[in-house]
Amino acid sequence: MQELKKNLLFSEKEIRERVKELAKEISEHYKDDKPVVCVCVLRGAVMFFTDLMKEVKSDAVVYDFVTLSSYENAMVEGTMSTTGKIKLIQDLRENVEGKHVLVVEDIVDSGYTVDYLRRYFSSKNALDVHIACLLDKPMSRKVDAHADYVAFTLERPAFIVGYGLDYDQKYRNLNGIYEVVND
Ligand code: PRP
């Protein structure tokens, strides 16, 4: 297998430190003892979710998971280019009514996914919905969406792998965050 050319953007240590900072902010935000349903968006957010949750100091936290897909996807060199039509493949097991929801995402790109999830959990009468993301790419937005807690912001186009993010389902297991380099 040909080795993927990539440059390290954020090291394991940088990620660990940033995750701790975000977790502190999040822990300080939720003070009212109402349950906080922390939602991992499978599959890309798994590493970020796990590390973040270990650092959030609150007994009000519960975990749950969703799987989404964007239908009418276009395959571009093994990666999905979303058209914005999001479909819920696997829903939460938790009822979010009257509870805080914290959606944990790996990346906010076009914004379709987090926009969908905010609307979805609001329609289920969540007390409020906040978004934590590992990487924010504001220049890629196609809808007016934002994350409330952002570990890193990328201000230029880049294809990212590692720490949960994939290229054709591979490289999710890298401990750092890398930019794929074209020949
Ligand atoms: C990726 C990523 C986010 C979403 C962000 O998911 O994990 O969930 O796209 O893109 P958007 O802001 O343009 O909506 P993907 O469908 O690639 O699945 P994965 O998490 O399993 O890699």
Note down, in words, how this protein is organized:
The protein is of the alpha/beta class and 183 residues long. The protein has a single domain, classed as Rossmann fold. 22% of the residues lie in helices and 35% in strands. It contains 3 helices and 11 strands. The strands form 3 sheets. It has a 6-stranded mixed sheet, with helices on both faces. Helix 1 crosses helix 2. The longest helix has 18 residues. The radius of gyration is 16 Å and the shape is globular. The two termini are 16 Å apart. The mean pLDDT is 93. It binds 1-O-pyrophosphono-5-O-phosphono-alpha-D-ribofuranose. 1-O-pyrophosphono-5-O-phosphono-alpha-D-ribofuranose binds next to strand 7 and helix 3.
Q: Indicate the CATH class.
A: Alpha Beta
Shape: globular
Category by helix and strand content = alpha/beta
> What's the mean pLDDT score?
93
Q: If strands are numbered along the chain, what order do they take across the biggest sheet?
A: 6-3-2-7-8-9
CATH topology: Rossmann fold
Number of strands: 11
Question: How many separate domains?
Answer: 1
* End-to-end gap: 16 Å
Helix content: 10-25%
Ligand kinds: 1-O-pyrophosphono-5-O-phosphono-alpha-D-ribofuranose
Indicate the multimeric state. Answer: single chain
Residue runs with pLDDT of under 50 for 5 or more positions: none
Strand percent estimate: 25-35%
- What is the count of helical runs? 3
Radius of gyration: 16 Å
The topology string of helices and strands comes to EHEHEEEEEHEEEE
Q: What is the name of the CATH architecture?
A: 3-Layer(aba) Sandwich
Largest sheet: 6 strands, mixed
